[in-house]
Amino acid sequence: MSNPDHAWLDGLVKWEDATCHVSSLAFKYGAAVFEGVRAYWDAERGVLNIWQLNEHLKRLEFSQRFMRYERIITADECREAILALLKANGFRANVHITVTAFLSGPGQPFVCGPVSLAVTAMARGDYATDGLDVQVSSWRRTPDSSLPQRVKANGNYLNGRVAAVQAKTDGYDTALMLTQSGKVSEGPAMCFFMVRDGVAITADKTSDILESITRSTVITLLEEQGIPVEERPIDRSELAAADEAFFCGTAWEIAPVRSIDRLVLPAGSPGPVTSLLMERFSALTMAADDAHPEWRTPVELS
Ligand code: PMP
């Protein structure tokens, strides 16, 4: 697939000019925070719907605040940049957007500016899967007391990466990570749910997870369907009691799990609750169902 014409780097630029210096703190020390956002093309209405934009931009402000950036790039600034970029590229397809607030100058690791905003948007399809074979990783999640997963910092992704690479090397599709105390945490870029006796269970927000927007969406959708949800610590052994399981996240949407440590989930992949959710989620993102308009930001392309 060819690159789009434009990117955003503190202004609209040609794709090939969206570069960052090798002396920057972002490059040298990973001093960057970001959001991955999706926009879904509604061909019937000729509208690109950005999914959960406000929630993503709120989290980006939080991540910058945690990093003590000397200037916070606000949600309004980011929104303007994203809209300008989508219009400049004139996408008529589903799009994946990355919004990064990063330290663009050189300096010592404790320096907190200058801050730059980079946005890229690329047409991208689904991560469709009929079931993931998951390895419970021997690599543990970095704890809140070291580098909090609540902050969507680029550096955090090295932790998920070692687990994902290990899983692939060992013949699995992806990893499920545990906290330092051995409770279930999350996947490398997605949150985890299991269904046990009709109850959906997911790790609570203090289990070293990213406070995932899709996780919140899923909780709302499950509750609307009358399916009880428990947010609580999950023992590793409880995974063996799951009837079905799935991962969720902006990129992965709702991804069914086939097996965990080669133990195949008895209700199938996708199981009935996962199937229901996948259908609901897709109807809402594609705007086939008009419910929850607050989750969609429509962009009219001229
Ligand atoms: N956990 C991690 C570590 C992630 O990177 C992501 C992707 N952003 C998620 C969970 C899912 O979060 P969200 O639903 O907000 O995309």
From TrEMBL:
Alphabetical keyword list: Amino-acid biosynthesis, Aminotransferase, Branched-chain amino acid biosynthesis, Pyridoxal phosphate, Transferase
Pfam families: Aminotran_4 (PF01063)
Gene3D superfamilies noted in UniProt: 3.30.470.10, D-amino Acid Aminotransferase, subunit A, domain 2 (3.20.10.10)
Enzyme Commission number(s) from the entry: 2.6.1.42
Keyword set includes Lipid metabolism: no
Pathway(s) it belongs to: Amino-acid biosynthesis; L-leucine biosynthesis; L-leucine from 3-methyl-2-oxobutanoate: step 4/4; Amino-acid biosynthesis; L-isoleucine biosynthesis; L-isoleucine from 2-oxobutanoate: step 4/4; Amino-acid biosynthesis; L-valine biosynthesis; L-valine from pyruvate: step 4/4
Keyword Repeat among UniProt keywords: no
Catalytic activity: L-isoleucine + 2-oxoglutarate = (S)-3-methyl-2-oxopentanoate + L-glutamate; L-leucine + 2-oxoglutarate = 4-methyl-2-oxopentanoate + L-glutamate; L-valine + 2-oxoglutarate = 3-methyl-2-oxobutanoate + L-glutamate
GO biological process per UniProt: isoleucine biosynthetic process; L-leucine biosynthetic process; L-valine biosynthetic process
One of the record's GO molecular function terms: L-leucine-2-oxoglutarate transaminase activity
CDD domains documented for this protein: PLPDE_IV
Family matches, as InterPro entries: Aminotrans_IV, Aminotransferase-like, B_amino_transI, BCAT-like_C, BCAT-like_N, Class-IV_PLP-Dep_Aminotrnsfr
Cofactor(s) annotated in UniProt: pyridoxal 5'-phosphate
Domain of life from the UniProt record: Bacteria
Enzyme class: transferase
Family: Belongs to the class-IV pyridoxal-phosphate-dependent aminotransferase family.
Primary role: Acts on leucine, isoleucine and valine.
UniProt name for this protein: Branched-chain-amino-acid aminotransferase
Organism from which the protein derives: Hwanghaeella grinnelliae
Source organism phylogeny: Bacteria, Pseudomonadati, Pseudomonadota, Alphaproteobacteria, Rhodospirillales
